[in-house]
Amino acid sequence: MSASAFWPVQTEQRAPAHPPVELSLLSSEAKREIVRVERSASEAMPHIVEGFGAWREAVPATPRVLHVIGCLTHGGAERQLATYAAAAHARGLASHSVLTFHPAEGVGAHFRPLLESAGVRIRALRDPPSQSALHAINTNMKLRARMAAIPPHLGVEPIDFVGALLTTRPDVLHAWLDHSNILAGVEALAVGVKRIVLSLRSVSPPNFPAWYGEWMLPWYRALLTHDRVRIAANSRAGANDYARWIGIDPSRIKVVNNGFDPSQFTHTEPANVAALREELDAVDRPLLLGVFRLSDEKRPIHFVNIARRVLSAVPNARIVIAGEGAMRNAIEDATQDLGDSFKLLGQRSDISTLFAAADATLLCSRVEGFPNALIEAQYLGCPIVSTDAGGAVETFMNGRTGFLHAQEDVEGMADSLVKLLTNRLLRAQFSRNARIFAAERFGLEDMVRATDALYR
To answer: Would you say the pTM of this structure is higher than 0.85?
Structure first.
């Protein structure tokens, strides 16, 4: 199955699909002569990089960096891309721009204002290429041969991607998430981009059967045979899992933890927090918060089972989930008997206020990369109860800022939550520890510098 068949699923169908660049933008000669050949990754790659050989060109001191991702919706990878690119661009470390597979519109434009306010330019794959890009595609026969070597099973039309790369002329291509890593990485090799960074944001694709494709592994292996390609993960757990899957030494994968920008956490003043607790009917009631996508890997049914145990011990507790997803109807059905003690809030734009208002937050995922929600919760003083999924264990201090449990330990997670919701002194101690830990451990400056170092 082609990569394009999986793309909308990987982004949880958070943005509508759009057609690629209209081929009518190109001359009939270009359309007629670029005939792609179906080959395996190992067979295709020598042709995709033909003419470059061991060619290596230094990245400029202030490079042009093009980030590639599906869209700019409200997600963890999207947040880190926007946070990093905006901060690095403002610091003058590089000139950053963003290319999205889907136009940054509607639900797919959540982080567009942050990027544009920092001067980061955004374009979509369907945007028309420049005239110079079209000329190169029409006249550079070596480039056209490399484009023809990109097999059809990868899905994306090379003319679209090459047109975007020749228009933006990046020194560095930084791809985010598996589909972008493979598709953009291959195209960037064909064009001759000096440095290619593949950014891993979770554990390996086989952990996500809904969008995993067997074509992914051979292409990752083929990409990593080239010294222009570097690979980074946001957690050691994720790096180790990918290394096992790909069959490489874990030391090849650089770990750059997520960072956060305190300026993005707004409306957490006491008056706003008090107003939100009143809105949620949580005045003088313990408030338990979940912030996650309502999809299988986040195990929202597990959350409901734990919530029932909490409510049996703390009957006046108020339990809410902020997030949307395919399992919303299932969760609504499963919680009908809980009445007004449990509420699905849907997609929210006031997550920082929710964390500041909550007495505890629960994450009971089956798989995780490096959850931003746990970092943000701690910065805002909200203690954590979490499973030991993936990089979640690297985001907080067990017994000091939260409690860590095995994934099936429903009873243990419920007991830990009851402790936090009923013991004011314990909750205050964890809250203080959490604020200090998050500010010291996940500072924006460290993340910016470590990411920029990947380009050098």
So the answer is: yes
| CA 224/CA 235 separation, integer angstroms | 19
CA distance 16 to 448: 31
Q: DSSP labels for 54-103?
A: T---PPPSS-EEEEEES---SSHHHHHHHHHHHHHHHHTSSEEEEEESS-
CA dihedral 260, 261, 262, 266 (to 10 degrees): -110
CATH superfamily of 263-442: Glycogen Phosphorylase B; (3.40.50.2000)
- Domain 3-255 sits in CATH at 3.40.50.11930
State the DSSP string of 288-353: EEEES-SSGGG-HHHHHHHHHHHHHH-TT-EEEEE---TTHHHHHHHTGGGGGGEEEEES-S-HHH
Q: What is the dihedral of CA 122, 127, 131, 132, to 10 degrees?
A: 50
Structural tokens at position 402: 């939260």
Q: What are phi and psi of 293, to 5 degrees?
A: -75, 140
The pLDDT tens digits for 248-275 are 999 999 999 999 898 888 889 999 999 9
| Residue 53: both structure tokens together | 């050989």
Distance CA 168, CA 342 (A): 49
CA 177, 181, 183, 187 dihedral sign is positive
Domain ranges of the chain: 3-255, 263-442
**Residues 373, 385: Cα–Cα separation, whole Å:** 12
